[in-house]
Amino acid sequence: HPWETVTTAAMQKYPNPMNPSVVGVDVLDRHVDPSGKLHSHRLLSTEWGIPSIVKSLIGTCRTKTYVQEHSVVDPVKKTMELKSSNISFTNLVSVDERLVYKPHPHEPDKTVLTQEAIISVKGVSLSSYLEGLMANTISSNANKGREALEWVINRLNAEIEEFTASARGTVRNSMAAAAFVEK
Amino acid sequence: MNSVGEACTELKREYDQCFNRWFAEKFLKGESAEDPCGQLFKRYQLCVQKAIKEKDIPIEGLEFMGPSKGKTENSS
């Protein structure tokens, strides 16, 4: 999909069926900087369905995890960069993600996404198995992210088609009405 | 999609509609003139900031109106 389509979809990414744990999205700040780039700071609230044993340790009122996201859209250079990091009350594991969307250098109707995640663990030493597990989850999430945008793009296209079809219907009706009146 | 503050969801929806339209029809096409959603955004913002304080969500740099994490886009 062309870069404009992907960027528009990315701004409206939630809700989508691939990320059911995202339950809230808010814009904390948004402005266009002097060079014309749009900065947005967003807060995402997620509910993970944490196992009850963990809930009993951290308390049931703290089952929401929050993610802070900073995005920059440059409409001239056609880049969209997203940086997100989780804010969690336990503060043991932090995940920072960086995504960059750019038009494909050779195929203008396609967009290239580069994605990286940095996982940091503080204080508690996790076994390498757990770390590997997280890394796998993150890379399968990267695919989910692509599927999620695909879903949003299809939804937006369906909305446009519906709107066009009903507009056409309205025009036909008024033309028929006008023809009737002329007689 | 809901807001972090339940009371803010309606304000959020109005703002989102306005923003999404401006973003796709103006901003991406290079007409980044005036953002018509300023008023809606202010009202929505006040509600969200109140909700965040109430829920005690620790967000860095919330008070600053500029890019907070210090990493601005590089220009080449």
TrEMBL record, chain A:
PROSITE patterns: PRELI_MSF1 (PS50904)
The organism's place on the tree of life at top rank: Eukaryota
Annotated ranges, domain PRELI/MSF1: 1-161
One cellular component (GO) term of this entry: mitochondrial intermembrane space
Protein name from the UniProt record: Protein slowmo 2
Biological source species: Charadrius vociferus (Killdeer)
Lineage: Eukaryota, Metazoa, Chordata, Craniata, Vertebrata
TrEMBL record, chain B:
Highest taxon in the source lineage: Eukaryota
One MF annotation (Gene Ontology) recorded for this entry: phosphatidic acid transfer activity
Pfam families: UPF0203 (PF05254)
Protein keywords: Disulfide bond
Matches recorded under InterPro entries: MDM35_apoptosis (IPR007918)
Keyword RNA-binding on entry: no
Catalytic reaction annotation: a 1,2-diacyl-sn-glycero-3-phosphate(in) = a 1,2-diacyl-sn-glycero-3-phosphate(out)
GO terms for cellular component: cytosol; mitochondrial intermembrane space; nucleus
BP GO terms, sorted: phospholipid translocation
Entry annotated with the keyword Disulfide bond: yes
UniProt cross-references to PANTHER family, sorted A to Z: TP53-REGULATED INHIBITOR OF APOPTOSIS 1
Similarity field: Belongs to the TRIAP1/MDM35 family.
UniProt name for this protein: TRIA1 inhibitor
